[in-house]
Amino acid sequence: QAMSSVVREWASQQDLHPNKTCLIITHTNAKVEAFNQSIHDYRHQEGQLGDTEYECLTQRGKTWSRIQVSVGDRLQLTRTDKDLGLWNGMMGTLVEVKEQGDSCTFMLQQDNGQKVSFNPESFHGFTLGYASTVYKAQGKTLPRVLVYHDGQGSQSLSYVELTRHQQDVQLFVSREKTPDWNTLVHQMGIQ
Predict the structure, then answer these.
(1) Please, what is the end-to-end C-alpha distance for the chain in angstroms?
(2) Burial of 75 (0-12, 13-18, 19+ CB in 10 A)
(3) Beta strands in the chain (DSSP E)
(4) What does DSSP assign to residue 81?
(5) Which one, 42, 126, 128, 144, has least CB within 10 Å?
């Protein structure tokens, strides 16, 4: 239930502030993928993305997966390719796809306004960028952050996830893993 509340709040934040990035921070790659897929599906259903969905093979660490990507989706890079000007952790919006026969090129507008392009058939170091692990969020500063707490945590991770915002941070708690306030304080305060 907390996960669906986070997705609804993300959608509400984007409706209210469409030009300000809102990032979901959680602890596991599995939760990140679930949030990313849920938000992609929501935006696609609402007509907020391009009509064409591109199936891409992506790599995060040693893990390979297939994702659906459309123009308008947020992307986060998971690998560096200096020759292409792509850096691990960089985030942006897919603004254009140029199709050339059986191949295509993605044009990504980074959050700093610069545009970079890559072929998703040869560069696999990207994923949807609506959610991030707390580790990947280190060093980032974003207008709005939604933190999903699922019982995992520590004092240092809690500090990171609750200080990535410029304007607004909201904490969502899984009651299944964290039934009360004292449990939350204990989980977030573990040394």
Answers:
(1) 28
(2) buried
(3) 22-26, 54-60, 63-69, 74-77, 91-100, 103-110, 115-118, 126-128, 131-133, 142-149, 165-173
(4) B
(5) 42
**Contacts of 94 by beta carbon, 8 Å cutoff, 6+ apart:** 69, 70, 71, 72, 73, 74, 75, 106, 107, 108
Residue 111 CB-density burial (10 A; 0-12 exposed, 13-18 middle, 19+ buried): middle
List b or e across 130-160, with b for residues whose CB sees 16 or more CB atoms inside 10 angstroms. bbbbbebbeebebebbbbbbbebbeeebbeb
In residues, how long is the chain? 191
Query: pLDDT of the chain along its 191 residues, tens only?
Result: 788 999 999 999 988 888 888 999 998 999 999 999 999 999 999 999 999 999 999 988 788 999 999 999 999 999 999 999 999 999 999 999 999 888 899 999 998 899 999 999 999 999 999 999 988 888 888 889 999 988 887 777 788 888 888 888 998 988 888 898 888 888 888 75
Q: Which of 128, 111, 120 is nearest to 39 (CA)?
A: 128
